[in-house]
Request: fold
Amino acid sequence: MSGRFAGKHVFVAGASSGINLEIAHGFAREGARITVLSRSEEKIAAAAQGLRDAGATALGIACDVRDYPGLEAAYADAVAAHGAIDVLVSGAAGNFLAPAVKLSANAFKTVVDIDLLGTFNVFRASWDHLVKPGASLIAITAGQAVHPMSFQIHACAAKAGVNMVTKCLALEWGPAGVRVNAISPGPIGDTEGMRRLADPDREKQIKGRLALRDYGAKRDIADAALFLSSPEAKYITGTILNVDGGSDLGDASANAVGE
Reply:
């Protein structure tokens, strides 16, 4: 396949569905060779087949991002198939609504282990397999990293850590020519996260609080990942890129033009 990323190897963790799978498809449309990874063997096999059906060269690997030795083996297999990694996206995540007084320590730890430890594992285990200089690493974070939210103490803590992992690795790995950034999506329609965290009956109210008055699309996040990994972004590292319709700015419901 031809395209901006023809011949490049793009590895996406947490890519059995949703935003991360759309990111994989975005790079595939631009000619990249794709490795997708997720813990469900059945789901990741289907995701890889979908990429191949769309014309991509794609490999699916079943592995839990909490399993560091498993990730080491996954990288070895991916590199054997597609060569050194040019772009790496760490997007595995877990979340649910829960008041802190009803949240068990184990439930808190589960989200932190998937989101925060998983991001560190995905990035750290990749080091020996990255194109250096030139690799682009992207974490998928969330607005909870900087905005405290009720019933989200576990996700807020985990995503705050993801932001700092991103920035610390950007400092440490920049001298090797490896860039590390993060994308913070806002409300993205037709995703599992929105189905779990947002009541459909409140859709109009939620959109009315956004500066751009609508949910984003999975393609918006994929396009941001393509930009961050392109030559046009070669001087960007350690950045948390909000792709959120202005939700980070606060409540825009009273800011309609001309009112």
